[in-house]
Specification:
globular; 10 helices; 7-stranded mixed sheet; 20% strand; alpha/beta; 34% helix; 301 residues
Length: 301
């Protein structure tokens, strides 16, 4: 779900097959890299699934990168195709960082130098491509935040990603199941995006937010009956401090996972009191395919 648009599992599967076939028709082979830079949107879910299906390597660029960081990351990952979201389709082939790119695709429709994403899918077959892949092949180049220096790409294999999915499914206090709704608040290029595949595998609904704003988020929890959410402590603090919190029904929330930064014990206690006993905390890193250690709901209690 995204801005009132609903994508069924059947439509997601068909779109995934079409995109995988379209990329293969452009000459891509297993292991080739596809760079994506976009703010949160429903297409990012489809793109990730298609890249897995076609045996390609995802290189997702954070929309908050500076232009110098974009050049550095693109030169490091040498993608064959670049997919740009709204506001990120102004680059051209041959520009600094884009020397390896032979095809540019725009999520906002065809424009000079770019193929339109929907037009690309419309011409492709909806039959699932038969591509042989192994657990040792690189599936994702997951870029670090660069907070300790130069941005680095953690090479995550298919086996790594499957292990990560098992951690989410088996290690969470309240795993996503059919009928549940998971809010995607943070950039899907980073930690939030690690939850896409576990949520789909569990049969849940992914609710995509363009950006985080307190009252629209609270209203969506009430209206859409969101059950799961991942937040950074700054988001939780903003919600706790907002006068609108008490005006919305948040009883559908059954799991609030937080991480990526420290959180004061007094704030944790306040969140526990106001959200209810639903808090768990995760710690991990780009190089470890996300989770390494966690504090469960019982640990918090």
């Amino acid at each position: 779900m995204h801005n009132g648009r609903v994508v069924t599992y059947a439509a997601l599967y068909q779109g995934t097959c079409r995109l995988a076939n379209a990329l293969i028709a452009l000459g891509l082979k297993p292991g080739d890299r596809v760079a994506i830079r976009s703010r949160n949107c429903a297409e990012l879910v489809e793109i990730e699934c298609a890249l897995y299906m076609a045996g390609l390597t995802k290189a997702a660029l954070n929309p908050r990168y500076t232009e110098n960081e974009v050049v550095q990351v693109m030169q490091d990952c040498t993608p064959s195709i670049y997919i740009g979201g709204q506001g990120f389709a102004g680059y051209q082939k041959g520009a600094a960082g884009f020397e390896s790119v032979h095809t540019m695709v725009s999520l906002a429709g065809a424009q000079p130098g770019y193929l339109g994403y929907e037009e690309l899918l419309a011409k492709a077959s909806s039959a699932e491509p038969q591509v042989e892949v192994s657990a040792d092949e690189v599936a994702v180049l997951h870029f670090s935040s660069g907070s300790t220096g130069k941005i680095k790409a953690a090479m995550q294999t298919r086996g790594n990603r499957l292990a990560s999915m098992r951690k989410f499914l088996a290690g969470n206090d309240v795993p996503v199941r059919e009928g549940d709704r998971l809010a995607m608040l943070g950039p899907m290029t980073h930690a939030t995006g690690m939850m896409i595949q576990p949520a789909l595998y569990g049969g849940g609904t992914i609710v995509v937010f363009d950006k985080f704003e307190v009252e629209p988020f609270l209203a969506a929890v009430q209206e859409l009956r969101i059950s799961h959410v991942f937040m950074v402590p700054a988001m939780i603090n903003m919600v706790l401090a907002h006068p609108a919190m008490g005006r919305y029904d948040l009883s559908s929330l059954r799991s609030l996972t937080y991480g990526a930064a420290p959180m004061a014990p007094s704030r944790i206690a306040e969140a526990w009191k106001r959200f209810g006993p639903i808090l768990s905390q995760g710690y991990g890193g780009s190089e470890t395919t996300s989770g390494v250690a966690r504090l469960s709901i019982r640990d918090h209690a």
